[in-house]
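Fold it.
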Amino acid sequence: MRTGLRPVLRTAVALIGASALIAVAGCTTDPTVEPGGGEGGGEDSSEEWFDQKLYDRQFEERDVVPEGPEDKPYLQMINPEMGDTSEFKSEGGKKMCFANASISNPWRQTGWITMNEQLKDLKKNGVITEMETRDAQDNDDTQIADIDYFISEGDCDGFIISPNSTSAITPAVERACKTDKPVIVFDRGVETDCAVTFIHPIGGFAWGIDTSQFLIDNLEKGDKVVALRILPGVDVLEQRWAAAEKLFGEADIEVVDYFTEGDPAEIKKVVSDELAKGDVQGVWMDAGDGAVSAVEAFEDAGKDYPVMTGEDELSFLRKWKDTDMTAMAPVYSNFQWRTPLLAAEMIFKGEEVPTEWVLPQSPITAEDLDEYLDRNKGMPDGHYAKFGGEDLSGFPEVWQDRVIP
């Protein structure tokens, strides 16, 4: 599915004038990379991640009206190619085994809560009756061992895998496929198509296109943007930066990018240091965790608020509302955490599922900010506005209490 992926080094690139090549990403963590970038921080890896065909596909998918129930975005599909699952049709309750990359950030925690609430509802129907989960805590070796443990135990009726990284986890996914049990991959990709379905929102390129174009539309040529990135080598994150870097370059926007590991203190330091060097007109993020810290750096420096893209985490949406800054919240649809269990139920019933299940992914704009703030009243700051669990039986208390299962 994806080839030639490898961890990317820290970069800080000023793009002025002609377009720069960009990068397509995979969900991989390189533990050798330290937080922080800065000018001269590392080599440019854009060429290795850019995929024009995938970029063009995701560009177009942003405008596709998805198939499926209007009130259930977690079951919607964009341009699906359906696959036959009749070989897995069987009666009786099924045990799923879930190898999870981690629950180490608010986005994954929100999804994990939603997934467990979906499981509770499915248990009532008697198809998916159990799910054993192992958490890799953002470590490739741990997740590989987790998958091999599930295989060796031999009591899994099917596998759900959210890969920690793209290349490293691929062989373990292939071993799971060889058990002849259905394998479902979601959130992050791997370099094999052996899974029955790969579930994900449109993708990182779509995020990067939406966010960079928003900044370009609200900035002038020659303006400076600070790009805050979490980790190298993660397909979704690298795709986001790939698209943004390309479009910023074409628009003659100056960009410096830093890896921060999503640490609020590091984010604030990076932005403060850049403000000390001169004016910064924009902030771009490949994930909104810690976005408020970036805004606070402008406040501490007594500077005008930047044009900014964060994410649909409520802390950012609330800060956006309070400051009335020019902003947009891209979305990497958190409701996707429901879909793997629902897909498993369909597979054991022998129903067709998309071989690549592409879910909708729509940013929150100034026009619908108030709507999503109202819909999420009473939710904690770490909650994600488009989590898509309002129809589950635990709503809203389970997400308000934020008890991680």
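The longest helix spans residues 106-125.
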